[in-house]
């Protein structure tokens, strides 16, 4: 209990912390949770998923090249519902077809002696085409990769 002789401020030993200079109160858990959910809802747009279909394989290629096929496949299966968003489904299938083509051609070329020379430029071209595709997709334009075989047909989308 406070007596009349005690000061009313809790910052007795730190007078500079009084009033406007007092530390901000800690955010409450529900407030932080609501902010996180709002941030997730803002980021969970179909346009961002379309860009991720094309751009995440580039990032994975630098660290784990065997996962480049997995990202467009997972986005296509989990997020792209043709009845809900045709553009996202089409973008995921296009990226998946390109990654399959790139993977198969690089494997076939690496088996031959002369093909070893062509694999690094092929991988650089794959990174460049994926970056171009993600930029075009971000702008809202449809992009078709050049020289990409259609393993998954467009009528499945």
Question: Strand tally, please?
Answer: 0
Low-confidence stretches: none
Biggest sheet, open or closed, and with what strands and sense? none
Number of folding domains? 1
Average predicted confidence as pLDDT: 76
SS summary, helix count: 5
- Percentage beta strand: under 5%
Summarize the amount of helix as a percent range.
55-70%
| Morphology call | elongated
N-to-C SSE series?
A: HHHHH
* SS class: mainly alpha
**Radius of gyration from CA coordinates:** 26 Å
For the record, give the distance between the C-alpha atoms at the N and C termini, rounded to a whole number: 71 Å
Give an account of the 3D structure.
The chain is 59% helix and 0% strand. By secondary structure, it is mainly alpha-helical. The termini are far apart. The mean pLDDT is 76.
Secondary structure: elements and pairs:
Elements: H1 29-43, H2 46-63, H3 70-78, H4 86-111, H5 115-138
Helix pairs in contact: 2-3, 2-4, 2-5, 3-4, 4-5
Can you give me a brief rundown of this structure?
With 157 residues, the chain is mainly α. The protein has one domain.
List keywords for this structure.
single chain; 157 residues; mainly alpha; 0% strand
